[in-house]
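Quick check before the chapter quiz. The format below is the same one you will see on the exam, so make sure you can read both the input and the output lines.
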Amino acid sequence: MSLKEKIISRVGTDLAAIETALETNLTPYFSLVEKTARHILFAGGKRFRPLLMVFCARLCGSDNQNLYRFSTIFEYLHAATLLHDDLVDDAKFRRNTPVAHRVFGNETAVLTGDFLLARALTIAADTGLLNVISVISNITEQMSQGEIEQLHNKGRVDLTEQEYMNVIRRKTAVLIEGACQVGAMIAGATNEQTDQLKQYGYHLGMAFQMADDLLDYTAETDTLGKTVGADLKEGKLTLPVITALKNARTEDREWMLQLLQNKTFTTDDFNKFKKLLTIHGGISDATQKAQHYVETAKESLAVFSTSPEKELLEDIADYALVRRV
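Here is the expected output.
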């Protein structure tokens, strides 16, 4: 049994309950909003963030009957950012499906993203926990700033590793970190447990995004669910590229810089670019750094006794790096 199959066998019932909660709690008042929201919500997402919230809460002893409902906060937030991101990036596909703004129009996609954000905040308020509301509000601020920073960095060939890390922390890690932290808060966990799960989520989120960025250079279009090379065409420098540019000899570096400034490169050009990323250590360096974040995430769980929930969270951390889609 593969790691993915092992995880799925453990969470099947929970995934079904989360799907039901996403349907039940969407409650838009206009059919077009519902169609647009469903287009992004039910197009094959893995429910990674809601699952993390549920299992972090259970790890801390929670039997709250509203866990599935509260977990939808993180899928609605995630879906809202995807709607907006795809429009900003002028993307064509998401999960092998035409993106929402190409189906329903730019205005509808933006406003549906706003609706999903508001829906998440409403459900956060229903927890009755001020600290949860504070965490969710901070997440929305951080994610917005991360997207703006990434937009500002588009096309920059001098982007540093630290600047890249700052962006992915805000763009991705804060939401995963928040899902784990809120799970602990809802469970009434101790400060130490809450902090360790927050650290677990942060390091997992960093590894998850670094692995996702690697897929742009290691996966095929039909498995990736979006156009391979999209980051490059959008002018986004990710860690493999930043490292390879730093390590490359002058001739290779100049060729890579020329390609980065040419949005109409050919398949052969892209394949050569990928080869140079490997030759100059971009792929191996990013993989090693992502692995370090995975190991640190798992170390954050040391405060908890062995349990099925802890084992699952450890498996999810490992899967963040080995996944192919």
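If your answer matched, good. The CA atoms of residues 131 and 185 lie 8 Å apart.
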